[in-house]
Amino acid sequence: MHEIGVREVVQFLGLTFNWETLKMTWLAMAIVILIAVIATRRLSLEPKGAQLVIESIIEFLHEQIGNTMGKRGMFYAPLIVTLFLFILVSNLIGLIPTLASPTNDLNTTLGLALMVVIMVHFLGLYYKGSHYIAHFFQPFKVFFFINLVDEIAKPITLSFRLFGNILAGEILIIILLQLAKWWVIPSVAWLAFSIFVGVVQALIFTMLTMAYLGNSVKDEHES
Amino acid sequence: MIDINSTLIAQILNFLVLVVILRAVAYKPIVKVIEAREKKIKETLDQADMDRRAAENILAENKAKLAAAGKKAEDIIEKAEKAARDARDASIEATKREIEQMKKAAAEEIERDRLKMTESLKSEVVALSMAAAGKIIEKNLSEKDNESIVKSFIDKLDSKKLGDL
C-alpha cells in the first residue's frame, strides 16, 4: 500500500472487488494453511517445534472457549482457532514491505464481524428459541432500544477496532519512513510495536467473538 | 478508504473456506493427538499407581520373609550352640576318664617298681651281710648255717624297717 487510501479494484460478474485485499487474503490463507501443514506433518505424542506452537494456541483457545462458551462451544472451536490464526497472520504480513494486511480493508473486518454477529443471533435462536428473543426486552420493554444499540454496536466496534489499528499502523510505518529517512529508530520501534498490536488485536477479536457467541451458545444450566 | 463493496462477501467466503480447510488439515488431527496424549498420560499414571501398589505389597512380603528368616537363623544358632556345648561337655568327661585311667596305670606301675626294688635290695643286703659277717667271724660257717642266720636277721629288718621303704 503505497498510495494511502487508493484501492485497485477489479470488476467480476458485475461485482466490484478490492484486488489487493483479495490477493493478500489468499496469501494469508496460504500461509495459515502452510503453517498448519508444517505443524501437522509429523504429529507425535511428544510435540516439538511447529506442532508445539499450534498445539499451545489450540489448547489456550480451548480453555477460553470452555470458560466463555461451555461444552457446546467446543463445536465452534475450529472456527475460533481459524479466526485467530487468520487475523494474526493477516495483521503480521502487512509489516512486510510491498505486502499489505487484508485486515487493513474494512471489507475484511466488517465481513468477519458481520459473520460473527449473524452467527450469534442465528445460534441464539437455534439453541434458546423464544428465550433468546425475550432477552432483548429484559429487564423492561423499553430496554429493547438500548439492547438494539448494543447489538448494532457489536459488529461496528469489532470491525472498526481491528481495521483502525491495522490501517493506522501501516500508515504510520509509511509516514515515519517519509518523515525520517535518515533516522530509522522510530520506524523500527513502530514496527516492533506493530507486531505487538497485531497479536493483541487478533486476540481481542477472537476473545470478543467468543464472548458474543458464548451469550447465545452457552447452556444457562451449565455452571 | 472505507468503501464497502462485494469484497465483504468474498472475504466471508474466503474465511469459511479457510475454516473448512484448517478443520480438516490441522484441527482434527491435532485434537486427536492431544486426546491420545491425555489418554496415554492417564494410562501411564494409572499404571504407575498400580506398579507402586504392587511394589508396596512385595516390600511387605519381603519384610515378613526377612523377619521369618531372622527367627529361623536364631533358632539354628541356638541349636548349634547347644550341640557345641553338649559336645564339649562330653569331651571333657571323656578326658577326665582318660586322666583317671592314666593315674591308675601310673600308680600300679609305681607299686610294681617298688616291689621289684625291694626284692633287689633284699638280695643285695644278704650279700653284704654275708661278707660282713664272714669278716667279723673270720671263720666260715657252713654255707647252710650262714644262710639261715642272715635270713633270720633280714626277716627282723624286714618287719622293722623295710616296711617303711
pLDDT below 50 for ≥5 consecutive residues: which ranges of chain A?
none
Shape of chain B: rod-shaped
The greatest interface here is:
A-B, 48 and 32 residues
Overall number of domains of chain A? 1
Helix content of chain B: over 70%
Query: What string, H for helix and E for strand, traces the elements of chain B in order?
Result: HH
- Average pLDDT taken over every residue of chain B: 86
Gyration radius of chain B, in Å = 62 Å
Strand portion of chain B? under 5%
Task: Please report the number of helical segments of chain A.
Answer: 7
Query: Which quaternary structure do these chains form?
Result: heterodimer
What class do helices, strands and sheet pairing of chain A give?
mainly alpha
Our count of domains of chain B comes out at 1
Largest sheet of chain A: 2 strands, antiparallel
Number of helices of chain B: 2
Total E-strand runs of chain A: 2
Q: From the alpha-carbon coordinates, what is the Rg of chain A to the nearest angstrom?
A: 20 Å
